[in-house]
Amino acid sequence: MVAEGKRWRFAMVCSSNMNRSMEAHSQLGRAGLDVESYGTGTHVKLPGPSLHEPNVYDFGTPYGAIYDDLRRKDPDLYKRNGLLPMLKRNTSVKLAPQRWQDNAGDGLFDMIMTFEERVFDLVVEDMNNREPKLMKSVPIINMDVKDNHEEAGVGAKLAVELCQKLEAIDGDWEEIIDDLITGFEKQHKRRLAYSIAFY
Length: 199
Known about the structure:
Strand order of the largest sheet: 2-1-5-6-7
Radius of gyration: 17 Å
Helix content: 40-55%
Distance between the termini: 11 Å
CATH class of the largest domain: Alpha Beta
Low-confidence stretches: none
Shape: globular
Mean pLDDT: 96
Number of strands: 7
Number of domains: 2
Number of helices: 7
Strand content: 15-25%
């Protein structure tokens, strides 16, 4: 339940806090929404020269440092596959990738959105493992989005629309969320999953 007229606080979550959650973070921010973003992986993983050689970084490694590292390794490859432009965008949004499971100090969110079923399951599990103190409910909504630049852009636009619809709700979101999600699915031919957790 969000108090009337109060702004919602949104969390966008993908695996590495690099592409899908950051594109959504960027677009929600531009739309004037209050947003943070996270990843759920144990490390930040980016494509490397081959499938068996990903680039792996710790959460908290600044996007700028990752950019410099990849540019030093193979500027042509990482420009061509879109990693360098993506990292440049990320540096304009925030300093470094953050891990969802370490975010308890960041305060409460009014809606958590994930972009992959596995990530959704990890967020639900993490929220269920936290001790609910305030009994404040929060919807966790998943919309599967392929982890590539084009799809991330499409997914982010849809995320903005969904978040704006939620923030515009007059009254209790719990009473209308089923209708809102059904309408959204019909309109965009995208399946959403959602769960409710408590702070």
